[in-house]
Amino acid sequence: MTEPSTARHVDVLIVGAGLSGIGAACHLQRESPGRTYAVLEAREAIGGTWDLFRYPGVRSDSDMFTLGYSFRPWTDPKAIADGASIREYVQDTAREYGVDRHIRFGTRVVAASWSTEDSRWTVTAERTGTGETETWTCSWLSVCSGYYRYDEGHRPRFPGEERFGGRVVHPQHWPDDLDWAGKRVVVIGSGATAVTLVPSLAEQAAHVTMLQRTPTYVVSLPGRDALAEKLRRRLPDRVVYPVVRWKNVLVSMASFQLSRRRPELMRKVLAKAAAKELPGSVDVGTHFNPPYDPWDQRLCVVPDGDLFRVLREGRASIVTDRIAGFDETGIALESGEHLDADVVVTATGLNLLPIGGMRLTVDGEDVDLSRTVSYKGFMVSGVPNFAMTIGYTNASWTLKADLVARYVCRLLDHLDRNGYAAATPLAPADGGTAPFIGLSSGYVQRSLAALPKQGSRAPWKLYQNYVRDVLLMRRGPLEDEGIRFTRPVDERATAGVGEVAA
Length: 502
Description:
The protein is of the alpha/beta class. It has helices spanning about 20-30, 50, 65, 85-95, 190-200, 225-230, 235-260, 265-275, 285, 305-310, 395-420, 440-445, 465-475, 490-495; strands at about 10-15, 35-40, 105, 105-115, 120-125, 135-145, 165-170, 185-190, 205-210, 220, 300-305, 315-320, 325, 330-335, 340, 345, 360, 365, 375, 380, 385-390, 420-425, 435, 455, 485, 500.
């Protein structure tokens, strides 16, 4: 394939300037210097999720010692940080490493085509302001666009909404002109967004009701890390950061393993902790006792128990019921109760969109992600020189994103050292597969069919285990049964050498 002369070529093209994309670019500069790269970002700002979401109280549900980058210590006293602080952290990191000079904003990738003959990707992007297209070529393509749709959240329609006399908003597109001071607010949902919104809105609202169809496990964690604060009085951040990071990783892993091995015990521990924080008027068995086991869905973290606090103070309440429909003054429930409302917030979840919705082709054949198998959780079978960054479901996103970015650097250097042109993952010969994400959350179940599968064993299985992945991705071999390395086509033809299988 002969590329257009107007195509811009870089060694590595990164899609997305959020937490993962900025981290990938920084790792590339730190660990595989000398390579040319560019970052294409559909929006006009750095930050991804943390720039898009602007609803009241938006924050991480992971501590910043693990959500932060491994190479740049988080120095703010807050361990559970608000969205603005995280956005500033990502932007400052991009400026500090000069990554901001490599970003092309307002550029949405719509298609990527791999040519084995040329050993390169041809990437088609649209300028979001004008609709004009531009072409890029690269030797390696890293997609760091997350896995959900930025332009549209999951928004079920309820009977009678058109009759409601108040305002209905979705957190993913929070309006600047919304005034909820002194008003009755109903937040529909029970996930991370809902438990964040309720205490934040309760600061000004007359009353906030969290209306949930199904309870969620909610756990209170300190907003500041006691060990970090103690160590910071004596040691520099560069020493404190990795110590606290590993402490939090191990505590999180222990909690997850206990949940998987002794789910009933963990259920009792979480229920007992919630009961201590809640007023007697709130029934833990009804409102904080999900029908599923802990970590079948992600736990919701509330810093310093802020959700429990507003429930104790009577500024918020929780209702577990189903919606029969809207009317002029609020929401009618299937139980016959009615929730009066001036504002309704539909914290009803996300829509997944793997690899930003771009079309992938390999040598002219469309790639159906649902028919591929993930390799080490970041590449997919049959697609050469391609990485897809998706973080952990049971720990901080960045822990996995960091590992992926560093592994890509190792792989690029390995290709160069051995004269290889491409690394192509292979599907497992035994054919045993499972869903890519092992959560029962609605947003996951709605979109599992569009995601790759995972295998039943390494290197295709996702163990969701950071320590195991550190050993696999930092120290493990680059050549194994799950990947094939090939030399340039012209070199193979001249030498009469076929594919080199690991």
